[in-house]
Amino acid sequence: MLQQIYPSVAHDFSYELNKDMHFASAHFVPHESAGACQNMHGHTYFANVTIAGDELDETGFLVNFQSLKKLVAKEFDHTLLNDHEAFDDRDPNFFPTTEVVARTIYERIQKHLDTLENKPVCLQVFLRETPTSYVVYRPKRGKKSES
Ligand SMILES: Nc1nc2c(c(=O)[nH]1)N=C([C@H](O)[C@H](O)COP(=O)(O)OP(=O)(O)OP(=O)(O)O)CN2
Ligand SMILES: [Zn+2]
């Protein structure tokens, strides 16, 4: 939900940036224990990502807000998440659940941040799937993107 208050993450970096995004996607959870969620259905996801660092780039940015939007909202908007290369219906760690989608957003963002000279880091991904359900993903300290 845009403009809501998100859980904060403690850190010692000088700069912290947050970007809200939303995207409409279809998905299904490919396991019998998921009940009705086995059927394809859609959500308008709301994501908030928290980026921090001590140095700005030549533009005075920690990271360009627009590149975050491209990596997440534009990538997933109006798609079937199960068809995206990041997800795999054969492995629960890659089913497009809220947990896995949040982790995937982190991995995509951190992979981009690793290419930047000022070396910002993604500290938190907040992902709301429904009005009543959301996940917060925080990487383990020192752990960066695996993909
Ligand atoms: N831990 C998880 N549990 C569930 C997930 C998930 O990704 N992680 N996903 C689903 C379904 O995909 C569903 O879209 C969301 O379920 P739910 O929160 O139950 O949605 P409702 O709108 O029906 O919830 P209300 O409480 O009635 O608002 C299920 N579980
Ligand atoms: Zn769902």
Automatic annotation (TrEMBL):
The active site is at 37 (proton acceptor), 78 (charge relay system), 129 (charge relay system). InterPro entries: 6-PTP_synth/QueD, 6-PTP_synth/QueD_sf. It comes from the Bacteria. Its EC number is 4.-.-.-. Its cofactor is Zn(2+). One of its GO terms (biological process) is tRNA queuosine(34) biosynthetic process. Keywords: Lyase, Metal-binding, Queuosine biosynthesis, Zinc. It catalyses: 7,8-dihydroneopterin 3'-triphosphate + H2O = 6-carboxy-5,6,7,8-tetrahydropterin + triphosphate + acetaldehyde + 2 H(+). Zn(2+) binds at residues 27, 41, 43. Gene3D superfamilies: 6-pyruvoyl tetrahydropterin synthase/QueD. Binds 1 zinc ion per subunit. Pfam families: PTPS. GO terms for molecular function: 6-carboxytetrahydropterin synthase activity; metal ion binding. Pathway: Purine metabolism; 7-cyano-7-deazaguanine biosynthesis. The keyword Zinc applies. It is an enzyme of class 4 (lyase). SUPFAM superfamilies: Tetrahydrobiopterin biosynthesis enzymes-like. Belongs to the PTPS family. QueD subfamily. NCBIfam families: queuosine_QueD. This is 6-carboxy-5,6,7,8-tetrahydropterin synthase. The lineage of its organism: Bacteria, Bacillati, Bacillota, Bacilli, Bacillales.
